[in-house]
Write a structure and sequence with these properties.
The complex is a heterodimer of chains A (120) and B (502). Chain A has 120 residues and is mostly helical. Chain A has one domain: Helix Hairpins (Orthogonal Bundle). Helix content of chain A is 59%, strand content 0%. In chain A, helix 1 (4-20) runs antiparallel to helix 2 and helix 2 runs antiparallel to helix 3 (71-102). The mean pLDDT of chain A is 86. Chain B is an all-alpha fold. Chain B has a domain at 269-492. Helix content of chain B is 79%, strand content 2%. The longest helix of chain B is centred in the middle third of the chain and has 32 residues, at 154-185. Chain B starts with a helix and ends with a helix. The mean pLDDT of chain B is 90. Classes of the chains: A mainly alpha (120), B mainly alpha (502). Chain A binds chain B through residues 20, 28, 32, 35-36, 38-40, 42-43, 46-48, 72-73, 76, 79-80, 83, 86-87, 90-91, 94-95, 97-98, 101-102, 107, 110, 112-114, 116-117, 119-120, and chain B through 131, 134-135, 138, 141-142, 145-146, 149, 152, 154-155, 157-162, 164-165, 168-169, 171-172, 175-176, 178-180, 182-183, 188, 232-234, 236-237, 294-297, 300, 357, 359-360. Chain A: It is a multi-pass membrane protein.
Protein backbone atom coordinates (compact mmCIF):
# COMPACT_ATOMS: atom_id res chain seq x y z
CA UNK A 1 0.00 0.00 0.00
CA UNK A 2 2.70 2.44 0.99
CA UNK A 3 4.62 1.58 -2.15
CA UNK A 4 1.61 2.21 -4.36
CA UNK A 5 0.88 5.70 -3.08
CA UNK A 6 4.08 7.45 -4.27
CA UNK A 7 3.60 5.99 -7.72
CA UNK A 8 -0.03 7.06 -7.68
CA UNK A 9 0.99 10.59 -6.74
CA UNK A 10 3.54 10.65 -9.52
CA UNK A 11 0.99 9.47 -12.04
CA UNK A 12 -1.51 12.06 -10.83
CA UNK A 13 1.04 14.88 -11.10
CA UNK A 14 2.13 13.91 -14.59
CA UNK A 15 -1.40 13.31 -15.83
CA UNK A 16 -2.55 16.68 -14.45
CA UNK A 17 0.34 18.59 -15.98
CA UNK A 18 -0.27 16.80 -19.28
CA UNK A 19 -3.92 17.82 -19.19
CA UNK A 20 -3.15 21.43 -18.19
CA UNK A 21 -0.85 21.74 -21.18
CA UNK A 22 -3.74 20.84 -23.49
CA UNK A 23 -5.59 23.60 -25.29
CA UNK A 24 -9.11 22.47 -24.48
CA UNK A 25 -10.91 24.16 -21.56
CA UNK A 26 -12.41 20.96 -20.23
CA UNK A 27 -9.01 19.30 -20.08
CA UNK A 28 -7.71 22.38 -18.28
CA UNK A 29 -10.38 21.98 -15.58
CA UNK A 30 -9.66 18.26 -15.26
CA UNK A 31 -5.95 19.01 -15.03
CA UNK A 32 -6.44 21.61 -12.30
CA UNK A 33 -8.60 19.23 -10.27
CA UNK A 34 -6.11 16.38 -10.62
CA UNK A 35 -3.26 18.69 -9.72
CA UNK A 36 -5.05 19.70 -6.52
CA UNK A 37 -5.66 16.04 -5.71
CA UNK A 38 -2.04 15.16 -6.31
CA UNK A 39 -0.72 17.88 -3.99
CA UNK A 40 -3.22 16.91 -1.32
CA UNK A 41 -2.28 13.26 -1.52
CA UNK A 42 1.39 14.20 -1.42
CA UNK A 43 0.83 16.24 1.72
CA UNK A 44 -0.99 13.30 3.27
CA UNK A 45 1.68 10.73 2.47
CA UNK A 46 4.70 12.82 3.41
CA UNK A 47 3.50 13.01 7.02
CA UNK A 48 4.20 9.25 7.14
CA UNK A 49 1.41 6.72 7.19
CA UNK A 50 0.42 5.07 10.43
CA UNK A 51 -2.53 2.78 10.28
CA UNK A 52 -4.96 2.20 13.09
CA UNK A 53 -3.50 4.67 15.59
CA UNK A 54 -5.30 7.94 16.04
CA UNK A 55 -3.70 10.69 18.09
CA UNK A 56 -6.43 10.74 20.71
CA UNK A 57 -5.18 10.84 24.29
CA UNK A 58 -7.05 8.46 26.56
CA UNK A 59 -8.81 9.70 29.69
CA UNK A 60 -6.16 8.49 32.14
CA UNK A 61 -3.10 9.08 29.97
CA UNK A 62 -0.80 12.06 29.67
CA UNK A 63 0.39 11.40 26.13
CA UNK A 64 -1.01 9.41 23.24
CA UNK A 65 0.20 5.82 22.98
CA UNK A 66 2.75 5.11 20.25
CA UNK A 67 2.42 4.52 17.38
CA UNK A 68 -0.09 7.20 16.49
CA UNK A 69 -0.68 9.01 13.24
CA UNK A 70 0.68 12.56 13.11
CA UNK A 71 -2.39 14.82 13.26
CA UNK A 72 -0.69 17.89 11.77
CA UNK A 73 -0.60 16.75 8.11
CA UNK A 74 -4.22 15.73 8.43
CA UNK A 75 -5.16 19.19 9.67
CA UNK A 76 -3.14 20.79 6.87
CA UNK A 77 -4.76 18.49 4.37
CA UNK A 78 -8.23 19.40 5.54
CA UNK A 79 -7.46 23.10 5.12
CA UNK A 80 -5.85 22.52 1.76
CA UNK A 81 -8.82 20.50 0.51
CA UNK A 82 -11.25 23.25 1.46
CA UNK A 83 -9.13 25.98 -0.16
CA UNK A 84 -8.58 23.86 -3.25
CA UNK A 85 -12.27 23.15 -3.52
CA UNK A 86 -13.08 26.85 -3.38
CA UNK A 87 -10.55 27.74 -6.04
CA UNK A 88 -11.58 24.89 -8.30
CA UNK A 89 -15.22 25.91 -8.03
CA UNK A 90 -14.24 29.47 -8.95
CA UNK A 91 -12.13 28.22 -11.86
CA UNK A 92 -14.98 26.13 -13.23
CA UNK A 93 -17.41 29.05 -13.11
CA UNK A 94 -14.81 31.32 -14.67
CA UNK A 95 -14.14 28.89 -17.51
CA UNK A 96 -17.86 28.57 -18.10
CA UNK A 97 -18.14 32.36 -18.33
CA UNK A 98 -15.20 32.49 -20.69
CA UNK A 99 -16.79 29.82 -22.85
CA UNK A 100 -20.08 31.72 -22.91
CA UNK A 101 -18.62 35.06 -23.88
CA UNK A 102 -15.89 33.89 -26.27
CA UNK A 103 -17.77 30.93 -27.75
CA UNK A 104 -14.61 28.88 -27.99
CA UNK A 105 -13.06 25.95 -26.14
CA UNK A 106 -9.56 26.54 -27.44
CA UNK A 107 -7.08 28.31 -25.18
CA UNK A 108 -5.05 29.36 -28.21
CA UNK A 109 -7.84 31.75 -29.15
CA UNK A 110 -7.22 33.68 -25.96
CA UNK A 111 -4.18 35.68 -26.99
CA UNK A 112 -5.54 39.21 -27.33
CA UNK A 113 -4.27 40.50 -24.00
CA UNK A 114 -0.73 39.52 -24.94
CA UNK A 115 -0.72 41.30 -28.25
CA UNK A 116 0.88 44.65 -28.80
CA UNK A 117 -1.67 47.07 -30.13
CA UNK A 118 -1.25 48.08 -33.76
CA UNK A 119 0.25 51.45 -34.52
CA UNK A 120 -2.13 53.71 -36.34
CA UNK B 1 -2.09 45.87 24.13
CA UNK B 2 0.96 44.71 22.17
CA UNK B 3 -0.86 41.60 21.11
CA UNK B 4 -3.75 43.66 19.93
CA UNK B 5 -1.44 45.92 17.93
CA UNK B 6 -0.21 42.99 15.84
CA UNK B 7 -3.73 41.70 15.36
CA UNK B 8 -5.20 45.05 14.32
CA UNK B 9 -3.96 45.03 10.69
CA UNK B 10 -5.86 41.75 10.35
CA UNK B 11 -8.92 42.60 12.40
CA UNK B 12 -9.70 46.06 11.00
CA UNK B 13 -10.08 44.96 7.36
CA UNK B 14 -11.92 41.81 8.44
CA UNK B 15 -14.52 43.71 10.42
CA UNK B 16 -14.66 46.40 7.76
CA UNK B 17 -15.40 43.73 5.18
CA UNK B 18 -18.08 42.14 7.36
CA UNK B 19 -19.77 45.50 7.91
CA UNK B 20 -19.58 46.26 4.20
CA UNK B 21 -21.21 42.94 3.42
CA UNK B 22 -24.03 43.78 5.81
CA UNK B 23 -24.66 47.01 3.93
CA UNK B 24 -24.54 45.32 0.51
CA UNK B 25 -27.33 47.42 -0.98
CA UNK B 26 -25.99 50.77 0.18
CA UNK B 27 -22.85 51.72 -1.74
CA UNK B 28 -22.56 55.02 0.11
CA UNK B 29 -22.43 53.16 3.45
CA UNK B 30 -19.80 50.81 2.07
CA UNK B 31 -17.71 53.78 0.98
CA UNK B 32 -17.90 55.31 4.44
CA UNK B 33 -17.01 52.01 6.11
CA UNK B 34 -14.17 51.54 3.66
CA UNK B 35 -12.65 54.95 4.30
CA UNK B 36 -13.01 54.53 8.06
CA UNK B 37 -11.38 51.11 7.91
CA UNK B 38 -8.53 52.53 5.82
CA UNK B 39 -7.98 55.39 8.26
CA UNK B 40 -7.97 53.03 11.25
CA UNK B 41 -5.63 50.68 9.42
CA UNK B 42 -3.25 53.51 8.62
CA UNK B 43 -3.15 54.61 12.27
CA UNK B 44 -2.80 51.04 13.54
CA UNK B 45 0.04 50.22 11.18
CA UNK B 46 1.89 53.43 12.07
CA UNK B 47 1.55 52.52 15.76
CA UNK B 48 2.82 49.01 15.00
CA UNK B 49 5.81 50.38 13.11
CA UNK B 50 6.74 52.75 15.94
CA UNK B 51 6.29 49.98 18.49
CA UNK B 52 8.50 47.57 16.54
CA UNK B 53 11.05 50.29 15.90
CA UNK B 54 11.31 51.06 19.63
CA UNK B 55 11.03 47.60 21.14
CA UNK B 56 12.34 45.17 18.53
CA UNK B 57 10.50 42.18 17.11
CA UNK B 58 6.99 41.75 18.48
CA UNK B 59 5.23 38.40 18.55
CA UNK B 60 1.92 37.02 19.61
CA UNK B 61 0.60 33.49 19.71
CA UNK B 62 -2.90 33.03 18.37
CA UNK B 63 -5.02 31.25 20.98
CA UNK B 64 -2.11 31.39 23.48
CA UNK B 65 -0.68 28.06 22.38
CA UNK B 66 3.08 28.26 23.04
CA UNK B 67 5.32 28.98 20.09
CA UNK B 68 6.23 25.90 18.08
CA UNK B 69 2.72 24.46 18.43
CA UNK B 70 0.42 27.40 18.03
CA UNK B 71 0.38 29.83 15.15
CA UNK B 72 2.72 32.74 15.73
CA UNK B 73 2.22 36.22 14.40
CA UNK B 74 5.52 38.05 14.16
CA UNK B 75 5.99 41.73 13.43
CA UNK B 76 9.56 42.69 12.67
CA UNK B 77 10.58 45.90 10.93
CA UNK B 78 10.34 44.49 7.42
CA UNK B 79 6.85 43.10 7.90
CA UNK B 80 5.56 46.20 9.63
CA UNK B 81 6.99 48.34 6.83
CA UNK B 82 5.12 46.15 4.35
CA UNK B 83 1.91 46.49 6.35
CA UNK B 84 2.20 50.26 6.52
CA UNK B 85 2.88 50.57 2.80
CA UNK B 86 -0.09 48.38 2.05
CA UNK B 87 -2.32 50.57 4.18
CA UNK B 88 -0.98 53.75 2.54
CA UNK B 89 -1.77 52.53 -0.95
CA UNK B 90 -5.03 51.02 0.32
CA UNK B 91 -6.09 54.49 1.40
CA UNK B 92 -5.11 55.96 -1.96
CA UNK B 93 -6.96 53.25 -3.88
CA UNK B 94 -10.11 53.82 -1.84
CA UNK B 95 -10.01 57.54 -2.45
CA UNK B 96 -9.53 56.84 -6.14
CA UNK B 97 -12.23 54.23 -6.53
CA UNK B 98 -15.02 56.44 -5.20
CA UNK B 99 -14.93 58.38 -8.47
CA UNK B 100 -12.63 56.25 -10.58
CA UNK B 101 -14.59 53.01 -10.56
CA UNK B 102 -17.97 52.50 -12.22
CA UNK B 103 -21.04 52.14 -10.03
CA UNK B 104 -21.86 48.63 -11.24
CA UNK B 105 -18.60 47.21 -9.95
CA UNK B 106 -18.91 49.15 -6.69
CA UNK B 107 -22.29 47.59 -6.01
CA UNK B 108 -21.00 44.10 -6.71
CA UNK B 109 -18.82 43.71 -3.67
CA UNK B 110 -15.72 45.66 -4.67
CA UNK B 111 -15.25 47.22 -1.23
CA UNK B 112 -15.51 44.08 0.93
CA UNK B 113 -13.28 42.09 -1.44
CA UNK B 114 -10.61 44.77 -1.46
CA UNK B 115 -10.67 44.88 2.34
CA UNK B 116 -10.25 41.10 2.56
CA UNK B 117 -7.42 41.37 0.05
CA UNK B 118 -5.71 43.82 2.39
CA UNK B 119 -6.27 41.44 5.27
CA UNK B 120 -4.56 38.73 3.23
CA UNK B 121 -1.60 41.02 2.52
CA UNK B 122 -1.23 41.90 6.22
CA UNK B 123 -1.58 38.27 7.20
CA UNK B 124 1.04 37.08 4.73
CA UNK B 125 3.44 39.71 6.04
CA UNK B 126 2.80 39.11 9.72
CA UNK B 127 2.58 35.35 9.97
CA UNK B 128 5.37 33.31 11.50
CA UNK B 129 4.13 29.95 10.30
CA UNK B 130 4.79 28.31 6.97
CA UNK B 131 1.38 26.80 6.42
CA UNK B 132 -0.31 29.94 7.63
CA UNK B 133 1.68 31.79 4.97
CA UNK B 134 0.09 29.52 2.37
CA UNK B 135 -3.38 30.17 3.78
CA UNK B 136 -2.92 33.95 3.71
CA UNK B 137 -1.62 33.73 0.17
CA UNK B 138 -4.77 31.85 -0.79
CA UNK B 139 -6.88 34.50 0.92
CA UNK B 140 -5.30 37.27 -1.08
CA UNK B 141 -5.20 35.28 -4.31
CA UNK B 142 -8.86 34.40 -4.29
CA UNK B 143 -9.67 38.07 -3.68
CA UNK B 144 -7.45 38.91 -6.65
CA UNK B 145 -9.26 36.36 -8.79
CA UNK B 146 -12.58 37.94 -7.92
CA UNK B 147 -11.31 41.49 -8.45
CA UNK B 148 -9.71 40.70 -11.83
CA UNK B 149 -12.86 38.98 -13.05
CA UNK B 150 -15.24 41.53 -11.47
CA UNK B 151 -17.33 43.06 -14.21
CA UNK B 152 -16.72 40.21 -16.63
CA UNK B 153 -15.58 42.09 -19.73
CA UNK B 154 -13.82 40.03 -22.36
CA UNK B 155 -10.25 41.12 -21.67
CA UNK B 156 -10.83 40.69 -17.95
CA UNK B 157 -12.06 37.12 -18.37
CA UNK B 158 -9.12 36.36 -20.58
CA UNK B 159 -6.67 37.87 -18.10
CA UNK B 160 -8.40 36.09 -15.22
CA UNK B 161 -8.13 32.66 -16.78
CA UNK B 162 -4.38 33.04 -17.23
CA UNK B 163 -3.98 34.46 -13.75
CA UNK B 164 -6.08 31.78 -12.05
CA UNK B 165 -4.43 28.85 -13.82
CA UNK B 166 -0.84 29.88 -13.16
CA UNK B 167 -1.53 30.88 -9.58
CA UNK B 168 -3.32 27.62 -8.88
CA UNK B 169 -0.21 25.82 -10.08
CA UNK B 170 1.98 28.07 -7.93
CA UNK B 171 -0.13 27.29 -4.87
CA UNK B 172 0.21 23.59 -5.62
CA UNK B 173 3.99 23.91 -5.71
CA UNK B 174 3.91 25.91 -2.49
CA UNK B 175 1.85 23.22 -0.77
CA UNK B 176 4.20 20.52 -2.04
CA UNK B 177 7.16 22.47 -0.69
CA UNK B 178 5.45 22.81 2.67
CA UNK B 179 4.85 19.07 2.66
CA UNK B 180 8.52 18.37 1.94
CA UNK B 181 9.64 20.74 4.71
CA UNK B 182 7.28 19.14 7.21
CA UNK B 183 8.34 15.67 6.10
CA UNK B 184 12.03 16.42 6.68
CA UNK B 185 11.97 18.71 9.68
CA UNK B 186 8.65 17.99 11.37
CA UNK B 187 7.75 21.59 12.05
CA UNK B 188 6.07 24.50 10.33
CA UNK B 189 6.93 27.35 12.67
CA UNK B 190 9.43 29.56 10.84
CA UNK B 191 11.52 30.21 13.95
CA UNK B 192 11.74 26.54 14.81
CA UNK B 193 12.56 25.71 11.19
CA UNK B 194 15.36 28.27 11.35
CA UNK B 195 16.77 26.46 14.38
CA UNK B 196 16.35 23.02 12.82
CA UNK B 197 18.08 23.79 9.51
CA UNK B 198 21.07 25.22 11.36
CA UNK B 199 21.59 22.01 13.32
CA UNK B 200 23.09 19.10 11.34
CA UNK B 201 20.28 17.31 9.52
CA UNK B 202 20.36 13.98 7.76
CA UNK B 203 19.40 15.19 4.28
CA UNK B 204 20.69 18.72 3.58
CA UNK B 205 20.02 18.26 -0.13
CA UNK B 206 16.33 17.65 0.52
CA UNK B 207 16.05 21.02 2.26
CA UNK B 208 17.52 22.68 -0.82
CA UNK B 209 14.96 20.82 -2.92
CA UNK B 210 12.15 22.12 -0.70
CA UNK B 211 13.65 25.58 -1.10
CA UNK B 212 13.41 25.21 -4.87
CA UNK B 213 9.72 24.41 -4.55
CA UNK B 214 9.31 27.67 -2.66
CA UNK B 215 11.44 29.52 -5.19
CA UNK B 216 9.17 28.35 -8.02
CA UNK B 217 5.95 29.00 -6.10
CA UNK B 218 6.87 32.50 -4.94
CA UNK B 219 8.77 33.11 -8.16
CA UNK B 220 5.50 32.73 -10.05
CA UNK B 221 3.70 35.01 -7.60
CA UNK B 222 6.51 37.58 -7.68
CA UNK B 223 6.92 37.33 -11.48
CA UNK B 224 10.59 36.33 -11.64
CA UNK B 225 12.25 35.80 -15.02
CA UNK B 226 11.06 32.61 -16.63
CA UNK B 227 7.78 32.66 -14.68
CA UNK B 228 6.40 36.13 -15.35
CA UNK B 229 4.47 35.81 -18.59
CA UNK B 230 1.08 35.78 -16.86
CA UNK B 231 1.67 39.25 -15.44
CA UNK B 232 1.67 41.47 -18.54
CA UNK B 233 -1.18 39.34 -19.87
CA UNK B 234 -3.51 39.94 -16.97
CA UNK B 235 -2.58 42.99 -14.89
CA UNK B 236 -3.78 45.60 -17.34
CA UNK B 237 -7.20 44.07 -17.94
CA UNK B 238 -9.27 45.16 -14.89
CA UNK B 239 -10.24 48.79 -14.23
CA UNK B 240 -7.39 50.92 -12.98
CA UNK B 241 -8.50 51.11 -9.33
CA UNK B 242 -8.22 47.33 -9.15
CA UNK B 243 -5.10 46.84 -11.22
CA UNK B 244 -3.29 49.62 -9.35
CA UNK B 245 -3.60 47.82 -6.04
CA UNK B 246 -2.85 44.39 -7.46
CA UNK B 247 0.06 45.65 -9.54
CA UNK B 248 1.50 47.67 -6.71
CA UNK B 249 1.20 45.17 -3.93
CA UNK B 250 0.88 41.55 -4.94
CA UNK B 251 4.18 40.73 -6.59
CA UNK B 252 5.97 42.44 -3.73
CA UNK B 253 4.24 40.20 -1.21
CA UNK B 254 5.66 37.26 -3.15
CA UNK B 255 9.05 38.97 -3.00
CA UNK B 256 8.59 39.54 0.73
CA UNK B 257 7.97 35.82 1.25
CA UNK B 258 11.05 34.93 -0.82
CA UNK B 259 13.26 37.29 1.19
CA UNK B 260 11.83 36.06 4.46
CA UNK B 261 12.28 32.36 3.65
CA UNK B 262 15.68 32.64 1.98
CA UNK B 263 17.16 34.69 4.81
CA UNK B 264 15.60 32.70 7.64
CA UNK B 265 15.16 29.09 6.59
CA UNK B 266 16.80 28.13 3.29
CA UNK B 267 20.27 29.47 4.00
CA UNK B 268 22.10 26.17 4.06
CA UNK B 269 23.03 25.89 0.39
CA UNK B 270 24.11 29.36 -0.62
CA UNK B 271 26.66 28.12 -3.15
CA UNK B 272 23.64 27.18 -5.22
CA UNK B 273 21.09 29.84 -4.37
CA UNK B 274 23.21 32.98 -4.66
CA UNK B 275 24.46 32.42 -8.25
CA UNK B 276 20.98 31.26 -9.19
CA UNK B 277 19.39 34.41 -7.78
CA UNK B 278 21.99 36.58 -9.47
CA UNK B 279 21.25 35.10 -12.89
CA UNK B 280 17.48 35.26 -12.33
CA UNK B 281 17.69 38.86 -11.09
CA UNK B 282 19.66 39.95 -14.14
CA UNK B 283 17.35 38.28 -16.62
CA UNK B 284 14.24 39.55 -14.82
CA UNK B 285 15.49 43.14 -15.04
CA UNK B 286 16.60 42.96 -18.66
CA UNK B 287 13.67 41.05 -20.12
CA UNK B 288 11.15 43.15 -18.19
CA UNK B 289 12.57 46.43 -19.37
CA UNK B 290 12.88 45.33 -23.00
CA UNK B 291 9.32 44.07 -22.87
CA UNK B 292 8.23 47.49 -21.65
CA UNK B 293 10.17 49.28 -24.38
CA UNK B 294 8.22 47.46 -27.08
CA UNK B 295 4.74 48.27 -25.77
CA UNK B 296 2.38 51.03 -26.92
CA UNK B 297 -0.11 51.02 -24.08
CA UNK B 298 0.26 53.08 -20.91
CA UNK B 299 -0.73 50.23 -18.61
CA UNK B 300 1.21 47.54 -20.43
CA UNK B 301 4.44 49.54 -20.24
CA UNK B 302 3.89 49.87 -16.50
CA UNK B 303 3.06 46.15 -16.21
CA UNK B 304 6.33 45.14 -17.83
CA UNK B 305 8.18 47.55 -15.57
CA UNK B 306 6.82 45.65 -12.56
CA UNK B 307 8.76 42.64 -13.83
CA UNK B 308 11.89 44.65 -14.37
CA UNK B 309 11.74 46.18 -10.88
CA UNK B 310 11.24 42.77 -9.29
CA UNK B 311 14.73 42.03 -10.61
CA UNK B 312 16.22 44.76 -8.42
CA UNK B 313 14.54 43.34 -5.34
CA UNK B 314 15.87 39.90 -6.18
CA UNK B 315 19.29 41.43 -6.79
CA UNK B 316 19.45 42.44 -3.11
CA UNK B 317 18.73 38.87 -2.10
CA UNK B 318 21.33 37.65 -4.59
CA UNK B 319 24.08 39.87 -3.20
CA UNK B 320 23.16 38.85 0.35
CA UNK B 321 25.03 41.48 2.32
CA UNK B 322 23.33 43.63 4.99
CA UNK B 323 23.46 46.68 2.73
CA UNK B 324 22.02 44.75 -0.21
CA UNK B 325 19.11 43.37 1.80
CA UNK B 326 18.48 46.87 3.16
CA UNK B 327 18.46 48.06 -0.45
CA UNK B 328 15.89 45.42 -1.31
CA UNK B 329 13.69 46.38 1.62
CA UNK B 330 13.85 50.06 0.72
CA UNK B 331 13.30 49.28 -2.94
CA UNK B 332 10.19 47.22 -2.22
CA UNK B 333 8.64 50.02 -0.16
CA UNK B 334 9.56 52.62 -2.78
CA UNK B 335 8.34 50.50 -5.65
CA UNK B 336 4.93 49.72 -4.12
CA UNK B 337 4.25 53.44 -3.72
CA UNK B 338 5.60 54.53 -7.10
CA UNK B 339 4.07 51.74 -9.15
CA UNK B 340 0.63 52.22 -7.61
CA UNK B 341 0.91 55.91 -8.23
CA UNK B 342 1.88 55.53 -11.90
CA UNK B 343 -1.07 53.21 -12.43
CA UNK B 344 -3.36 55.74 -10.75
CA UNK B 345 -2.00 58.51 -13.01
CA UNK B 346 -2.71 56.37 -16.06
CA UNK B 347 -6.19 55.96 -14.62
CA UNK B 348 -6.70 59.70 -14.25
CA UNK B 349 -5.55 60.26 -17.83
CA UNK B 350 -7.81 57.50 -19.12
CA UNK B 351 -10.71 58.86 -17.09
CA UNK B 352 -10.44 62.08 -19.08
CA UNK B 353 -9.50 60.64 -22.45
CA UNK B 354 -11.09 57.19 -22.36
CA UNK B 355 -8.06 55.35 -23.68
CA UNK B 356 -4.70 53.95 -22.61
CA UNK B 357 -3.19 53.71 -26.09
CA UNK B 358 -0.22 56.03 -26.40
CA UNK B 359 -1.05 56.87 -30.02
CA UNK B 360 -4.45 58.26 -29.14
CA UNK B 361 -3.25 60.26 -26.15
CA UNK B 362 -1.44 63.57 -26.11
CA UNK B 363 -1.52 67.12 -24.86
CA UNK B 364 -2.22 66.19 -21.26
CA UNK B 365 0.46 68.66 -20.18
CA UNK B 366 -1.57 71.57 -21.50
CA UNK B 367 -4.79 70.35 -19.97
CA UNK B 368 -3.50 69.07 -16.61
CA UNK B 369 -0.10 70.61 -15.85
CA UNK B 370 -0.31 69.61 -12.19
CA UNK B 371 -0.90 65.96 -13.05
CA UNK B 372 2.08 66.14 -15.38
CA UNK B 373 4.30 67.30 -12.53
CA UNK B 374 3.03 64.44 -10.39
CA UNK B 375 3.79 61.99 -13.20
CA UNK B 376 7.22 63.52 -13.67
CA UNK B 377 8.08 62.96 -10.01
CA UNK B 378 6.82 59.37 -9.99
CA UNK B 379 8.45 58.44 -13.28
CA UNK B 380 11.82 59.85 -12.25
CA UNK B 381 11.47 58.02 -8.95
CA UNK B 382 10.93 54.79 -10.83
CA UNK B 383 13.95 55.42 -13.03
CA UNK B 384 16.08 56.33 -10.02
CA UNK B 385 17.07 59.94 -10.59
CA UNK B 386 18.31 61.66 -7.41
CA UNK B 387 16.87 63.00 -5.16
CA UNK B 388 13.77 60.89 -5.75
CA UNK B 389 13.16 57.67 -3.91
CA UNK B 390 14.27 55.11 -6.51
CA UNK B 391 17.78 56.52 -6.47
CA UNK B 392 18.44 55.53 -2.87
CA UNK B 393 17.29 51.96 -3.40
CA UNK B 394 19.42 51.56 -6.51
CA UNK B 395 22.33 53.34 -4.85
CA UNK B 396 22.30 50.93 -1.91
CA UNK B 397 22.06 47.93 -4.22
CA UNK B 398 24.85 49.17 -6.51
CA UNK B 399 27.12 50.03 -3.59
CA UNK B 400 26.52 46.61 -2.04
CA UNK B 401 27.34 45.02 -5.38
CA UNK B 402 30.61 46.93 -5.76
CA UNK B 403 31.60 46.04 -2.19
CA UNK B 404 31.58 42.32 -2.99
CA UNK B 405 32.89 42.79 -6.55
CA UNK B 406 29.73 41.68 -8.35
CA UNK B 407 30.32 44.09 -11.18
CA UNK B 408 28.27 42.37 -13.84
CA UNK B 409 24.94 42.48 -12.03
CA UNK B 410 25.54 46.10 -10.98
CA UNK B 411 26.31 47.11 -14.57
CA UNK B 412 23.21 45.29 -15.77
CA UNK B 413 21.09 47.07 -13.17
CA UNK B 414 22.46 50.47 -14.13
CA UNK B 415 21.91 49.81 -17.83
CA UNK B 416 18.35 48.74 -17.06
CA UNK B 417 17.84 52.05 -15.26
CA UNK B 418 18.77 53.87 -18.45
CA UNK B 419 16.25 51.91 -20.47
CA UNK B 420 13.67 52.61 -17.75
CA UNK B 421 14.25 56.31 -18.39
CA UNK B 422 13.71 55.61 -22.09
CA UNK B 423 10.29 54.07 -21.36
CA UNK B 424 9.29 56.85 -19.01
CA UNK B 425 10.38 59.43 -21.56
CA UNK B 426 8.30 57.63 -24.14
CA UNK B 427 5.21 57.91 -21.95
CA UNK B 428 6.04 61.54 -21.21
CA UNK B 429 6.43 62.38 -24.89
CA UNK B 430 3.40 60.50 -26.10
CA UNK B 431 0.92 61.22 -23.34
CA UNK B 432 1.90 64.59 -21.93
CA UNK B 433 4.08 66.44 -24.40
CA UNK B 434 3.01 65.78 -27.98
CA UNK B 435 0.04 67.55 -29.49
CA UNK B 436 -3.33 66.07 -28.97
CA UNK B 437 -4.45 64.01 -31.96
CA UNK B 438 -7.35 65.46 -33.93
CA UNK B 439 -10.59 64.74 -32.13
CA UNK B 440 -14.09 66.01 -31.91
CA UNK B 441 -13.84 69.43 -30.16
CA UNK B 442 -17.01 68.60 -28.24
CA UNK B 443 -14.99 66.00 -26.28
CA UNK B 444 -12.88 68.76 -24.81
CA UNK B 445 -15.78 70.52 -23.14
CA UNK B 446 -15.34 70.10 -19.40
CA UNK B 447 -18.37 70.49 -17.22
CA UNK B 448 -18.21 71.73 -13.63
CA UNK B 449 -19.09 68.26 -12.40
CA UNK B 450 -16.23 66.69 -14.32
CA UNK B 451 -13.88 69.28 -12.88
CA UNK B 452 -14.92 68.32 -9.37
CA UNK B 453 -14.50 64.62 -10.16
CA UNK B 454 -11.09 65.34 -11.55
CA UNK B 455 -10.01 67.09 -8.41
CA UNK B 456 -11.12 64.07 -6.38
CA UNK B 457 -9.15 61.81 -8.70
CA UNK B 458 -6.02 63.91 -8.24
CA UNK B 459 -6.25 63.62 -4.46
CA UNK B 460 -4.97 60.01 -4.11
CA UNK B 461 -2.18 60.70 -6.62
CA UNK B 462 -1.08 63.72 -4.61
CA UNK B 463 -1.34 61.68 -1.40
CA UNK B 464 1.05 59.05 -2.77
CA UNK B 465 3.42 61.61 -4.29
CA UNK B 466 3.82 63.18 -0.85
CA UNK B 467 4.96 59.83 0.53
CA UNK B 468 7.25 59.27 -2.46
CA UNK B 469 8.81 62.68 -1.97
CA UNK B 470 9.13 62.04 1.76
CA UNK B 471 11.02 58.77 1.42
CA UNK B 472 13.12 60.28 -1.38
CA UNK B 473 14.06 63.73 -0.12
CA UNK B 474 14.06 62.84 3.56
CA UNK B 475 15.45 59.37 3.01
CA UNK B 476 17.69 59.06 6.04
CA UNK B 477 15.12 57.72 8.56
CA UNK B 478 13.67 55.31 6.02
CA UNK B 479 17.10 54.10 4.90
CA UNK B 480 18.28 53.54 8.45
CA UNK B 481 15.04 51.72 9.18
CA UNK B 482 15.63 49.53 6.15
CA UNK B 483 19.15 48.83 7.42
CA UNK B 484 17.75 47.84 10.81
CA UNK B 485 15.22 45.62 9.05
CA UNK B 486 18.03 43.97 7.08
CA UNK B 487 19.94 43.42 10.32
CA UNK B 488 16.90 41.70 11.78
CA UNK B 489 16.50 39.60 8.64
CA UNK B 490 20.12 38.46 8.48
CA UNK B 491 20.55 38.01 12.22
CA UNK B 492 18.05 35.20 12.59
CA UNK B 493 18.92 34.75 16.28
CA UNK B 494 16.79 37.84 16.93
CA UNK B 495 13.79 36.31 15.18
CA UNK B 496 14.24 32.91 16.83
CA UNK B 497 14.63 34.37 20.30
CA UNK B 498 11.64 36.65 19.90
CA UNK B 499 9.35 33.81 18.85
CA UNK B 500 10.55 30.85 20.88
CA UNK B 501 11.91 32.22 24.17
CA UNK B 502 8.80 33.83 25.57
Amino acid sequence: MELILPFLIGILFSASLYLILHRHFFKLILGLILFGLATNLFLFVIGRLTRGGSAIIGQDERVATEPFADPVPQALLLTAIVIGFGIQAFAIVLIKRVYQSFGTTDLDDMNTTDQIEEKH
Amino acid sequence: MNHLLIMLPLLIPLFGAILSLFSWRYVRAQQVIGILAQACMLIASFLLLFDVNDNGIRTTQVGSWPAPFGISLVADLFSSMMVITSSIIGMAIYLFSIKGLDKARQTFGYYPVLLILQMGVSGACLTGDLFNLFVWFEVLLICCFVLIALGGTKPQLEGAIKYVTINFLASGFLLTGIGVVYGILGSLNLAELAVLVRTPVSHPALITMAGMFFLIAFGIKAAIFPLFFWLPASYHTPPIAISAFIAGMLTKVGMYALIRLFTLVFVTDQELTIPLFTVLAGFTMVIGVFGAASQNDFRKILSFHIVSQIGYMLMGLALFTPLAIAGSVYFIIHNILVKTNLFLISGVVAHNRGTFALKKLGGVYLQHPFLSVLFFISAFSLAGIPPFSGFWGKFMLAKAGFEIDSFVIVLVSLAVSLITIFSMTKIWNEVFWKNKPETDPLDDVVTAREKKDNRLLHLPVLFLVLFILFIGVYAEPVVSMAQLAAEQLLNSELYINAVLKK
